[in-house]
Amino acid sequence: MLTRLRESVRPLAEALGRSLSKIGISPNALTVAGLVFSILTPVAAILFNPWSSLALMILSAAFDFLDGAVAKATGNISKKGAFLDSFSDRVADAAYILTLKLLGIDWVPAFLFVITAFLISYARARGEALGLKMEGVGLMERGDRIIAIGAALILLCMGYVRIATIIVWVSIALCIITIIHRVAYIVSGTEQ
Q1: CA nearest to 171, candidates 127, 107, 110
Q2: Contact call for residues 137 and 38 (beta carbons, < 8 A)
Q3: How far is CA 116 from CA 68, 112, 139, 150, in A?
Q4: Parent domain of 150
Q5: What would the pLDDT profile of 75-100 be if each residue is shown by its tens digit?
Q6: Per-residue pLDDT tens digits for 12-56
Q7: Structural domain tally of the chain?
Q8: 89 catalytic, yes or no?
């Protein structure tokens, strides 16, 4: 769903990417920084407070957004960087959802959210490996999931566990719809 928004933000992302590349920041350094912040998100939920988790999640997501911008601005797009980015995204997804669990979401919806998020990413990876363009296929791409997790995390910070839980269940339902959409898209795109 955020694919259209991504297009409108692209000029800003490219400008930020050029600025960061001029001061010598590499895309992989941003990816690793985002990975570290994502791992610290559930740690902060245990050791500090929910708001610190939210701040770390926002930082992690910002670095994840910027690594691609710098890679495109510098032309520094590599297989190693693509793998590192994808791997870091999966770790971040798990860390963010673990944070939701630590702050009050029951284990069943947390577990289902992780599984459905990973299946969406797996379907994209397999579809792209088969030569299909997967960006924009489905309702709950990674950016959409980050927004849903962020909204649930804000509500948990404010003590609204029930409303946060509803957001998680709705997100799971949308993830399942996305999985079905992607599987159908891949199957129809590879029929021969």
Answers
A1: 110
A2: no
A3: 24, 6, 13, 17
A4: 3-190
A5: 777 889 889 999 999 999 999 999 99
A6: 777 887 888 888 888 899 999 999 999 999 999 999 999 999 999
A7: 1
A8: yes
Q: Return the CA Rg of the chain.
A: 17
> In 16-174, at which residue ranges do the beta strands (DSSP E only) sit?
none
Nearest-angstrom CA–CA distance, 111 and 2: 24
Q: Say if residues 70 and 76 touch (Cβ distance below 8 Å).
A: yes
- CATH number, domain containing residue 183: 1.20.120.1760
Residues 6 or more apart whose CB falls under 8 angstroms from that of 92 comprise 34, 35, 38, 60, 61, 64
Active site residue: 64, 85, 89, 93, which one? 89
Q: Which of 148, 34, 156 lies closest to 99, judged by CA?
A: 156
* Residue 153: C-alpha distances to residues 55, 81, 150, 191 (Å): 10, 29, 5, 41
Torsion of CA 13, 63, 59, 90, to 10 degrees: 120
The 10 Å Cβ neighbour count of residue 158 is 12
- The DSSP call for residue 133 is -
DSSP state of 141: -
Within its chain, how far is the Cα of 13 from the centroid?
17
Two structure tokens written together for 34: 């985002």
pLDDT in tens, 111-148: 999 999 999 999 999 999 999 999 999 999 999 999 99
DSSP 3-state percent helix, strand, coil across the chain (nearest 5): 85, 0, 15
